[in-house]
Amino acid sequence: MSVLGIIAALHQEIASLLQAMGPNIKTHRIGQRDYHEGTLMGRSCIVVLSRIGKVAAAATAVTLIREFKASSILFTGVAGSINQQVKVGDVVVATQLLQYDFNASPLFPRYEIPLLGMSHFDADTKLSAQLQQCAQDYIYQDLKIDIDATSRDAFNLHQPQCHIGMIISGDCFVSDANHSIQLQQDLPAALCVEMEGASVAQICYEYAVPFAIARIISDQADGSAHIDFNAFLEQVARFYSAGILRRFLSAPLD
Q: Which stretches make up the Nucleoside phosphorylase domain (predicted)?
């Protein structure tokens, strides 16, 4: 039986999923993390809070694969935009991921992971296409049902879009304009920045487990937009994450 691992870095991003798993959920405490085992939309799932950062996310992914035999992994959560076309409330589905703060030069080229000979990790094409479709459908069909007009106005969620492209990860919350500009100059293909995805991508590559990652844009990652981050999580992001994943889980298995 296939088992889907679902990871998020913040509790609000998985709270609705845990509630939907119902009373038959089994919780396993491993490495100070709770792995919630059950079914969602009839599919076997393990839902887990990784906590923030690349090490935390990588450790969580390894446990999902080795202890729970996850056959595929999804990561959902928020990110900051570093592309002018990517706005607050948009969704980015990764085609590939890179650790922007990894630098073992001059022994290896900048960004390259030693002994793997690569810096970019490709998301699974099929899973990502399905996740992209679910994100688009959520935006166009469900968003106005889940998120009230007051919240949509507060965060300017009038025409959200779904983008596909490169996501970059690093162990730093990017909220400084100079840092954001430097990342844009160094990695012009990157659409958004976060703190976990590329480490999960590396683990999945090493274990040959397909994965997909969707990020909801919470800010411009440059300090220019004064967004109440906690309010965005409660009023917007948690609905996006649950709604997109509900659609994903409801899709028929091939």
A: 4-248
